[in-house]
């Protein structure tokens, strides 16, 4: 079952990269129609998409860490965190992950990297302050399960790729409404390019929706179950989820583009979307209580 999940995630990653290349090439054509020389723009967009995909695949962990502002855990200040992460990784048969800490009062964590050898686990300062040893181990074990299943590969690549699609779509929209481009006014050609540009501007939310399909809610249930098998203590993860539920008043600044990577998306804009990446906390607690 685990090996099937790993192969599934690898296929999803290559699908996302292929889909990304198609989108960027299409956006390049739209920009070419707006500014002239569409063929040159298409070639440039295609080359950019290939290069960006390569960079994303190999350096996605560094990109995500830079975006979140996470810093390496201090071996003295965060000693218990490092010991827990390394001990659980050893029990799971995984290499020791790099451990990071990010600012924020909300209880949260994520894992990133293209494979277990390059994996990173990051937790918030809020999690370190509010969770006891067993609860924190439950959260870490959950993230290690994502690492073992290669969920981090598809999740990290998806988070980085959707960002550039959103930026390019936004740029096309601004160019259109500010009247730039050689076909921005009048004529049949202008009407056609307006339609194309508007469609291009819709691509970003569609891409985000596809990511939420690729990284389904079932992945969270599976990671919860595997975390309990690893820690042998369901109450730890249940306690962490219960504290997250009680912590509803605390701001949780998780963007929709990266929501699928986080342990906790409650009290965030991403949690209110129809295609939410995470199941409700009550449902997760209920399943864990039966284990």
Secondary-structure element order, as H and E? HHEHEEEHHHHHHH
* Amino-to-carboxy terminus distance: 19 Å
Largest sheet: 4 strands, mixed
- The DSSP helix count reads 10
Q: Could you report the average pLDDT, rounded to the nearest whole number?
A: 78
Overall number of structural domains: 2
CATH H level, superfamily name of the largest domain: Metalloproteases ("zincins"), catalytic domain
Helix fraction, binned, reads 55-70%
CATH topology of the largest domain: Zincin-like
Proportion of residues in extended strands: 5-15%
- Specify Rg, calculated over alpha carbons: 21 Å
Strands ordered across the widest β-sheet: 1-2-4-3
- Apparent shape: elongated
Q: Give the strand tally.
A: 4
What's the level 1 CATH class of the largest domain? Alpha Beta
Strand-pairing-aware structural class: mainly alpha
- Unreliable spans are 267-274
- How does CATH name the architecture of the largest domain? 2-Layer Sandwich
């Amino acid at each position: 079952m685990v090996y099937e999940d790993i192969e599934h995630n690898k296929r999803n990653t290559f699908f996302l990269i292929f889909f990304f290349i198609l989108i960027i090439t299409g956006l390049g054509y739209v920009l070419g129609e707006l500014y002239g020389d569409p063929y040159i723009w298409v070639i440039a967009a295609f080359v950019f998409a290939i290069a960006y995909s390569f960079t994303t695949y190999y350096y996605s962990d560094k990109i995500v860490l830079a975006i979140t502002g996470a810093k390496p855990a201090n071996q003295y200040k965060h000693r218990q965190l490092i010991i827990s992460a390394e001990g659980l990784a050893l029990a799971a048969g995984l290499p020791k992950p790099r451990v990071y800490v990010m600012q924020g009062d909300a209880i949260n964590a994520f894992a990133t990297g293209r494979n277990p050898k390059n994996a990173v686990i990051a937790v918030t300062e809020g999690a370190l302050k509010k969770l006891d040893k067993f609860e924190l181990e439950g959260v870490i074990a959950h993230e290690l399960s994502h690492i073992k299943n290669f969920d981090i590969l598809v999740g990290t690549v998806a988070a980085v790729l959707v960002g550039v699609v959103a930026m390019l779509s936004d740029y096309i929209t601004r160019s259109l409404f500010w009247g730039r481009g050689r076909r921005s006014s009048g004529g049949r050609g202008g009407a056609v390019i307006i339609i194309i540009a508007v469609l291009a501007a819709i691509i970003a939310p569609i891409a985000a929706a596809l990511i939420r399909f690729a990284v389904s809610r079932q992945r969270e249930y599976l990671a919860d179950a595997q975390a309990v098998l690893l820690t042998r203590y369901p109450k730890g993860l249940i306690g962490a989820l219960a504290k997250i539920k009680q912590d509803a008043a605390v701001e949780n600044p998780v963007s929709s583009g990266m929501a699928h990577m986080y342990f906790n998306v409650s009290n965030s804009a991403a949690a209110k979307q129809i295609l939410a990446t995470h199941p409700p906390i009550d449902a997760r607690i209920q399943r864990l209580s039966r284990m």
